[in-house]
Amino acid sequence: MRELFRKRRMWRSRPDLKKRYDVVIIGGGSHGLATAYYLRQLGITDVAVLEKGYIGSGAAGRNTTILRSNYKTPEGARFYDASVKLYERLGKEMEFNLLFSQCGHLTLAHTDRALFVMANRAEVNRLQGIDSRLIGPDEVKELAPTMYVGEDTTYPIMGALYHPPGGIIRHDAVVWGLARGADAGGAEIHPYTEVTGLQRSGDRITAVQTTRGTIQAGTVLNCTAGWSSLICDMADVPLPITTHILQACVTEPVKPFLDVVIVSSQMHVYLSQSDRGEFVMGSEIEPWTTYRTSGTLNFLQDLTRHTLELFPQLEQARILRSWAGLCDLSPDYSPILGQTEVENFHVSAGWGTYGFKAAPIVGKTLAELVASGRTPDLIAPFTLERFYEDNLVSELAAAAVSH
Amino acid sequence: MSRLAQQPGERIDRSQPVSFTFDGKPAAGFAGDTIVSALYAGGRRVFSRSFKYHRPRGELCGCGQCANSLFQIEGAPGIRGCSEPIREGLRVVHQNAWPSLDFDVMRATDRVGGPFTPVGFYYKTFIRPRRLWPVYEKVLRSAAGLGRLPRRQDEREWETEYRRRRCDVLVIGGGAAGLAAATRAAELGADVVLCDEDAVLGGLLGIEGGHERVRELEGRARDAGVEILSGAPALGFFDGLVPVWQGSTLHQVRADQHVVATGAIQQPLVFADNDLPGVMLSGGARRLAAAYAVKPGERAVVATVDDRGLDDALALSAVGLDVVVADLRPDAGGGELAGRIRAAGITLLTGHTVVRAQGRDRVERAVVAKVDARGRALGDGSTHDCDLIAVSGGSAGALSLLLQAGGRAIYRPEIAGFAVTELPAGLHAAGAAAGHDRAEAVEVSGAIAGAEAAAALGRSPNGVADARERLAQLPAAAPVATPPAQASDGGRRGKAFVDLDEDVTVKDIKRATLEGYDSLELSKRYTTVTMGPSQGRFSQLPAARVLAAETGLDLGTVGLTTARPPWSTVPMGVLAGRPLEAAKRSAVHRRHEELGATVRWAGDWRRAYDYGDPVGESVAVQAAAGIIDVSTLGKLLVRGPDAGELLDRLYPNRMSNLAPDRIRYGVTTSEAGRITDDGTVCRIDDETFYVTTTSAGVAGVEQSFTWWLETWGLNAHITDLTQGVAAMNLAGPQARGVLTGLTDLDCSAEAFKYLDARHAEIAGVPCMLLRIGFVGELGYEIHCPSVNAEHVWDAIVRAGSKVGLRPFGLEPQRVLRLQKLHVIVGQDTDSEMTPYGAGMDWIVKLDKQQDFIGRWALEHTAAHEPSVRLVGFTTPGGELPTEGAVVLGTDGAPEGQVTSARRSPRLGQVIGLATVPAALAGDGAQIWISDAGRRIAATVTTKPFYDPEGEVLRS
Question: Which fold, A2-62+172-240+331-399?
């Protein structure tokens, strides 16, 4: 209770840049801050996090706050499961309520083909010890009584993949909690500090150029999601990544109406109701590549039309705000994580629409990589090399819309 | 009743009384009244309860912009009471208060909980024990939200028409500037559309006594041919596309030139208990009087920082209110308005502002004091009895659309607010949105913008330079004082609100800043300031001022938050349009319905899954004959001297050496060597190929073929015939007999061999016949013009009925093809399957001269054992695994999956296709299937279960 009244800074206001840091993390989003946070636990505290905007201004603050681990590949499921488990205890560990609501996650199936994919995911998940199962329309109706579960609709609901531990979390709180933890451990957080170049000499990055001066770094981490291929270009490390926008919107708040996360791949829509009462809704990645985060009218029209197929009652709910964020898409929809050909330059990239879900486990495993120099087993399948060796970890079938 | 005598330009029609109900009790007004004006006239002052503290709230803006009077009407929450017209029998109810609007038990959160619920309190509480969080969360959730959605689940009621409108100039805003701009552009010959959110045009001019001038301007605009959309807010700026919502129509307007004349939003002032009902924008109070002839109060204190407040004070005085004015400016602007105020006998306190509102649930007194530069009261000030505090805290240009369109906001101290610069080409700002605040300047700036828009379209307007000069010579805007960030933050018990929607106070912003949320974006996310239904219209600038004061940064550096669509909140039903989902149906779909088919989605198509008896249907095909509608197959005609070359580069196998009238199976692959689609290629003549694709894949295949055709510059063209050509497959031992009776073609096994193609008439209809068979029987795929498809279908069904022919659906087809281990691309293959993994090594011709799509990757793949292979299997125990069940590797880890599984009526056993680890892909290998906890043993087979040598197929 005392904490409630204490007016204490969460983090230092922007410190001066030092000449050198053991670790320089590019990107002050959930991945960069989580890495700084977990580095502290391994005793590495001479760390700078460089962020070109305010912390959490990129994908960390633009996602639709959904967490889940019911992925299609065993490698993916194992990895995201570890992430959800870290999220479960992160609030307590950081003494910051992340408002993590494990309200359950339903991926609807409207076709045979979708049922097939769900059955496969359920079984892969079950074998990994993840609570995930295929349920029928009756159970769907129990979990989401306000949803239209009838036969006489364009896309009748034939079943769903039910994932009880999935849910929603307050995304900004994750950013702030991690920033506070990292800052308390000594890491410096530098908002409004943009990286403009990387100096590479042979197999090493020797310096990081920023809008506030050049700094030396022992190890450099690229945690910049939508911009990751641009940062990697600075190090002459090509990434097989294309950047697209993903759009989302919220409605004005209304009284409690929906208590689970609903996803429909066929309808290209996912929605949940936040604790404030707003419906938070999103669609699929736009197919064209761009760095321009202005939204489209088509998105709002398609999203609302599809949402009303599931929830006709929402026709009078008012759209309040829409926005777009960048997604760094890899060829197999799995991340590119860990070492590159440059010895002291590691990446967290290729996240598509899944990055936020993985923040703590990325932070933990990258911190281990930095500390030990060895790639942790959990992220070994996600190396950049897999594209040269044809060892893809394909989440594609699950990825059309799969928040 | 507080109805005034008739006001010049009033909107109400006193000859048309309207009755409605509010919270079940009868209420009355006149046609033209809004919900708020009618209720206000009836004496109601409290219209809502606030989001967090459930404090009573009165009207704020009077024009549909604020969140102080949101109501629920039937199933619709969030109705803007101060702009929504009343209608006979309308049932209006309040939101977010229980048991009633005037007595709300949740008010306790304000009185008791207030000190315990500082900004962000939920981030700092309920952390442990973690298991109790769901309980707390439930309580928090039930307290949140404003309106209520119906829980009904019947059909949608809302139907919006999309209307597309192309025009030369779109003018957004129908005030003096917008009307002048539209008229000027239209008189110069441009096709002009003008939209305004208000039901009545004229903007501020119409409210401030200029209704005659508005009538003139509107008449001129109509005469010039301007299309006027009123009651129609522009929702956003999407790369030049502007959706305009008008009733049940969503106009999607695309214009060459845009004039944004959206006006300015009068700002509130921040002082202690500045949310008491009775604290209103002076413009809102004036609007109640001018437009609805409602007397907003008896005794008013007008607190202002600009001339608009003085003008409003005069107007309020003129309708009989007893007015005291507190002007923050030491000289009250120094203009003629101050003189007129004094001449009217109104008390004018200069250098003063309101520092506190007092009263129990409505304004009873205002505390007015002299303040220093930081807004701190000097001395205790004086107390004035009043029932209205009308505030004018300056104007904030309505810049959102300009910013969405790419303009940049900069701070301009002389207007105590932001203006937009760097407007992209084709975008023009006019009127108050461009920083003009005097009627004449507003109108002239509009005319200039209209002329400039027309000039950009190639017209030659005269007199633009003169007009610019005239604008420059008009008296400068009256000086505006920068309102203090807060005039008293409320002290221990009071609250000074920065954001009424979200109940965010000055203390909240200060506290957040101290904690480190020291940019406007961080502060917004932490305190939720500007995130409510009024979208920051009244809170953004006040919040930025508090933040600037706390951080010592100037307002320009603090900046604004990003402008995001929609500019006006909009019901989802309006955006959604009609509840239409495009579905494709084949030319013989009617027959399937007549036969009582089970119809399901297959890609974009509605297809017959079965006709009620899938087992019987499959038995009929094998015993006699069957017919299945395969019109959904993609059909492309590839024609030209380079057609063969093109196909050789697109398919891994060779197509150019195909003889005329012969058919070959093919798969297409991606550049990564993955199977993307399959189908048949039939050569019609030297330069013509008829290509079929999967039902779902045709669009992608056609796009990819066309793209590559252009890239390579080959001489060929591609025509998609899918919808124009129907196809049906006649299969079974009796198929030849049935066909022979309908055609002159020699259908003998010698004359018409397997993989031959023929042109012939069937039942008098010219058809193309392909001798192929997906289901494994002797079969003919008959392609005919869609218009004749029912005739051909009927003829075959009639002829076949004598030998036991039955139509069969997709489900029996799946069983039959599975007996042959024929692969369905997209079901048995996924995005990672290569031809090698699918057991189609023979289809990849690496000895071809040409480079082909995926060659590099397939050469690489050919050198390695694929990680999984697609094979057939049976389950000796007879268990039927779920499609999607997991195939375990030797170490028990998930390695593959069951892609198809069926019980075969003919074979009397369970058969299927599965991807299995390469090590387990040999005939007779035993695999384990994990299926929702079951472990099922299965035996691998690589040979078809039925007719393994293809003798039946070729017979």
Answer: FAD/NAD(P)-binding domain (3.50.50)
